[in-house]
Write a structure and sequence with these properties.
By secondary structure, the chain is an all-alpha fold. It has two domains: about 60 residues; about 90 residues. The chain has three helices and no strands. Helix 1 runs antiparallel to helix 3 and helix 2 packs antiparallel against helix 3. The longest helix has about 55 residues. The relative contact order is 0.07.
Length: about 150
């Protein structure tokens, strides 16, 4: 094999290596672009989740609100009963009005208890959902932290 043949083979090999390196650089550039887009998508998803969690926290009624509502219902019921007792001076009318109001008050109290139980169930469900969202969010943040 002559010196020219060896040089020619070397040049062909170098050309192949350079072509391979160029292809790899192009692939890495494409991969890097896709990773930047992926990170951007994840960031926007996390921001959207943060916004949704904040909205949920602000729209849920507080326990204090529910307690105050229940107390208000009882107070209104007592006020209605007291008003009925003072309005009817006649014993029979007062008696029949009080019985009617007591029956109505009992119905209101039963309805208030039903609503209170329903609210408690809904609050528990919402709290569990928020807890699950928070756990998923924290897991996503932990996964993001080492990558950055």
């Amino acid at each position: 094999m002559t010196r020219e043949e060896v040089d020619a083979k070397l040049e062909r090999t170098e050309a192949k290596v350079e072509a391979t390196v160029s292809e790899m650089k192009a692939e890495f550039a494409k991969f890097e672009t896709e990773m930047v887009k992926f990170r951007s998508d994840i960031s926007s998803g996390i921001s959207e989740m943060n916004t949704n969690v904040a909205i949920l926290k602000n729209t849920l009624p507080s326990k204090g609100f529910l307690v105050v509502t229940a107390i208000s219902i009882v107070a209104v019921t007592i006020a209605i009963l007291a008003l009925g007792a003072t309005q009817f001076g006649n014993g029979i009318m007062a008696s029949s009005a009080s019985v009617s109001q007591a029956v109505n008050a009992e119905k209101v109290a039963v309805e208030a208890q039903r609503i209170s139980a329903e609210n408690a169930t809904q609050l528990k469900s919402i709290s569990e959902s928020l807890g699950a969202i928070a756990v998923k969010f924290e897991a996503m943040q932990r996964e993001q932290a080492p990558q950055q």
